[in-house]
Design goal:
Length: about 450
């Protein structure tokens, strides 16, 4: 980092700030970070959010440090400022800063990182918030006092989780709720296991990205004549009429236009990915189910289909749609279900939902269920689901267990993952990649529905 000019340094020195961006435009982001942190209950002086946020979000060559302050006097305030500056310089060298800024984090991600690092500090200094000067002094004292704790916490951040979000286009646009989900994802050992497994199998998905094929179909040509259209499709002989007659014909919709043809367009499939979050899906099962669900969602999005994801235990939770190719990664990593198990209720509600979707949506529906081998659904419920959607299931067996469910024959396809494939390592990845490859083959073999659109040029 470069040194800031003396004038700039003095203006920042009065506000305790150590870091300065080369462009003032980034300061608008700092204001947003402070506002979002306040919503989370992490209320801190603006200079702390400014310095630590810039170090996490802005490339090093776009930042400057002020020169070292004059030798400290015996004043406690000067010694505290020296300690704060030393902390900021040390934090700038941490792996958290290096890896985070390499990901070019958006504002939501920066806020989540700041909240993870500074929430405890904000709680301890909360009694001083109504006294701005005392608040700033107390925050600096606490930061220097707990410097080792802050740097250790920074080194423990799950940067791989952030990298996974970047790979899958994680959607943090859900506001405060999305930030809370991300904060929960940054420090959980269970989450780290899911992240590592997902990163292990995702390359096979991304390498198999499908590209649209060329077509020889002549689309958007002229198909006939119509009484409505745009000026560029006007039949030229209409201009032979004199002005009064042409005006009359326009007003009475007697003017002729060429109508265009619209070729057949493939209709996207709508995939519902349903993930079991009951007590039977903990540890290795949760890691496998959520990791392969994320990879499946990405594969289907790359194939041009639409995807929604939702959890269930004794109830069916709200659906999260993958919008603009972005997957709600943080929600899938951090969700915790604590409501027992009630398959009858869940799949009855799901069948009602698919009925509603079918009435207003002409897309083919496909239901993917990621669950354990003890999911006992009434056969009548599965028959009802089968009338609305293609059914695919991934069943995770318990130790020395068997798959003995009375509705398996109603599924269009299913996979069994035994205990040996859940232990991690290459065997786990191979099992997941085999399932993902077969999902692609099934979707390719299934005839894709086509929708014929007949369109006309509109005036």
């Amino acid at each position: 980092m470069t040194q800031a000019s003396p004038d700039t340094s003095r203006s920042r020195r009065s506000a305790h700030s150590v870091v300065a961006p080369h462009s003032d435009s980034v300061l608008l982001r700092v204001q947003l970070w402070s506002q979002e942190l306040a919503k989370l209950g992490v209320d801190l002086p603006s200079f702390v959010v400014h310095d630590f946020g810039l170090l996490l979000a802005v490339p090093s060559d776009q930042l400057a440090f002020g020169p070292a302050p004059a030798p400290a006097t015996s004043g406690a305030a000067d010694r505290a400022d020296d300690g704060y500056r030393a902390l900021v310089l040390e934090f700038a060298k941490s792996q958290a800063c290096t890896h985070a800024k390499a990901l070019r984090p958006d504002d939501s991600m920066v806020v989540a990182l700041l909240a993870r690092l500074l929430a405890r500090l904000a709680r301890e200094c909360a009694p001083y918030r109504q006294q701005p000067e005392r608040f700033a002094t107390e925050v600096i004292e606490q930061l220097t006092k707990h410097q080792l704790y802050l740097l250790t916490l920074a080194d423990s951040l799950d940067i791989d989780a952030l990298r996974l979000i970047g790979m899958l286009g994680g959607d943090l646009s859900a506001g405060t709720l999305g930030i809370v989900d991300l904060i929960a994802s940054l420090g959980s050992p269970e989450t780290n296991a899911m992240v590592q497994f997902s990163l292990q199998i995702l390359p096979s998905v991304l390498e198999a990205k499908q590209r649209p094929a060329a077509s020889s179909h002549a689309a958007f040509g002229y198909a006939g004549l119509t009484r409505r259209g745009s000026v560029d499709s006007l039949v030229l002989t209409e201009l032979a009429w004199d002005e009064p007659e042409l005006t009359r014909r326009l007003l009475e919709n007697e003017v002729l236009y060429y109508s265009r043809e619209q070729g057949q367009q493939e209709t996207r499939r709508l995939h519902h990915l349903l993930i079991d979050a009951s007590a039977s899906m903990r540890g290795q099962r949760a890691t496998f189910a959520r990791g392969i669900a994320l990879a499946t969602a990405k594969k289907l999005l790359l194939a041009g289909d639409d995807v929604t994801l939702r959890f269930f235990d004794s109830r069916l939770y709200e659906a999260h749609r993958c919008q603009a190719g972005k997957i709600p990664v943080t929600h899938l990593l951090s969700f915790r279900g604590e409501r027992g198990r009630n398959p009858r209720r869940v799949f009855d509600e799901l069948a009602n939902h698919l009925d509603v979707v079918a009435r207003g949506d002409g897309r083919e529906q496909v239901l993917h269920v990621f669950t354990h081998a003890g999911l006992y659904i009434p056969r009548a419920h599965v028959e009802r689901l089968r009338r609305r959607a293609s059914l695919l299931g991934v069943f995770l067996l318990p130790s020395r267990g068997k798959l003995e469910l009375g509705y398996i024959d109603l599924l269009h396809h299913h996979w069994i993952v035994d205990e040996s494939a859940l232990r991690g390592g290459k065997e786990q990845a191979d099992a997941a990649e085999r399932i993902l490859a077969e999902v692609s083959q099934i979707q390719e073999r299934a005839p894709r529905p086509r929708a014929v659109e007949r369109t006309r040029d509109q005036p």
